[in-house]
Write a structure and sequence with these properties.
single chain; alpha/beta; eight-stranded mixed beta sheet
């Protein structure tokens, strides 16, 4: 691969299936920054939020000088025809993806964001990566997999996740979203079209 691509995820469980597909074992995928395919693909984890993703993207751009940078991970659906595992690609200019400063917990929150922003999905990191890419003149793309549907209400605290049915739903949704995301990313990058 001649093109160097950086892929920035927020969290480990979003990035792990992609790293595994690239042949990076469990221990090898634990560091916050990992190189694969002789440095052709850089995987980074930023933590949640725009500020964390921007700082991580700036560091990755300065250190590795990628030709393109992708903000990858999970997103929430803002429309009812998207289902768990659906992958959405956006350059943010197309307004398909809205980057929110805070989680959207309820169907009402998500519906209001759809009417206000016109986007079909929401995340919390893509605009930070996009800002760093724009400042450095690096190509940017967001590739997100739906992990919660429009009607899925998110708990307002971590304690809300700790019921067995909710944990099972969350794990199943995360597994499907991360699997679809990793498959899509690998195919997309291997095609060599990251514009």
């Amino acid at each position: 691969m001649n093109t160097r691509i950086a892929v920035v995820f927020a969290l480990y469980w979003e990035s792990r299936p992609f790293a595994k597909r690239l042949g990076i074992g469990f221990a090898g995928s634990l560091p916050k920054v990992v190189s694969a395919q002789e440095g052709g693909i850089i995987i980074a984890r930023s933590g949640m939020g725009t500020e964390n993703s921007r700082k991580t993207a700036e560091r990755i751009i300065n250190e590795f000088h990628p030709d393109a940078i992708i903000s990858a991970g999970f997103c929430g659906a803002l429309v009812d025809d998207l289902k768990i595992g659906d992958v959405v690609v956006s350059d943010l200019k197309d307004r398909k993806l809205f980057c929110s400063a805070k989680p959207l917990f309820t169907c009402e929150d998500k519906t209001a964001a759809f009417h206000r922003e016109g986007a079909i999905v929401v995340d919390m990191e893509s605009s930070g990566v996009a800002e760093a890419a724009a400042a450095a003149g690096v190509r940017f793309l967001a590739v997100k997999a739906v992990s919660d549907t429009l009607l899925e209400e998110l708990p307002r605290s971590i304690l809300g996740f700790f019921s067995v049915p909710r944990l099972i739903r969350f794990k199943n949704a995360s597994d499907k979203a991360s699997k679809n995301l990793s498959e899509f990313l690998l195919e997309y990058i291997n095609k060599g079209d990251t514009r």
